[in-house]
Amino acid sequence: MGKSIVAGVLASGLVLPAMAALEAGKTAPEFALKASLAGKAFDFSLKEKLKSGPVVVYFYPSAYTNGCNLQAHTFSVNSDKFAKAGATVIGVSLDSIERLNDFSSDPEYCAGKVAVASDPEGKVAKSFELNVRDAAPGKTDSRGKSIDHGFAERTTFIITEDGKISSTISGVSPTDNVKQALAAVEKLAAK
Questions:
Q1: Which residue blocks in 85-173 are alpha helix, DSSP H?
Q2: 68, 72, 89, 169: which is the annotated catalytic residue?
Q3: 110 an active-site residue?
Q4: Is the alpha carbon torsion for 165, 91, 37, 106 positive or negative?
Q5: What is the dihedral of CA 182, 64, 61, 53, to 10 degrees?
Q6: Domain spans of the chain?
Q7: Which residues pair with 164 in a beta bridge?
Q8: pTM of the model
Q9: Does 3.40.30.10 match the CATH number of domain 31-190?
Q10: Per-residue pLDDT reduced to its tens digit, 125-162
């Protein structure tokens, strides 16, 4: 199954070349975005969430695509472990809030356990120095619906309460991305 998922991600054309994402030790850019959890839209503020503990900000190319579906599902399955470590998880993509309302409540993916935020122009992704690619005409998602937005590079940042990036995770599979993020927040919790 793992090989078919990797093949599907590669075939989808959603793999983006890595840029020089912000590294550990840098200050994370503050941002506020419209987000969704369990199909309900809300306003997400990184500054506010950091008051209650570290925040895992994971950027992904597009909801309802192979690798992103797997990553959201893996975050969902591990949501209790992230919460136990005191961390908030927020996914960020260039999807519309309407798509994310569906994605955040879909029992196969976010399952109402993982919040996802809409960065429609990729401004937040770019502020984290991520590669953002324009929409690709003719692309469809796993439901057969047209993807009419750009794509952010898959990269995860662990941000501590002081606003500093403690870990940057990229260039790994969607499941390894989540595993490494969980290990990073559990290490922070053990300090």
A1: 97-105, 123-127
A2: 68
A3: no
A4: negative
A5: -30
A6: 31-190
A7: 27
A8: 0.88
A9: yes
A10: 999 999 999 998 899 999 999 999 999 999 999 999 99
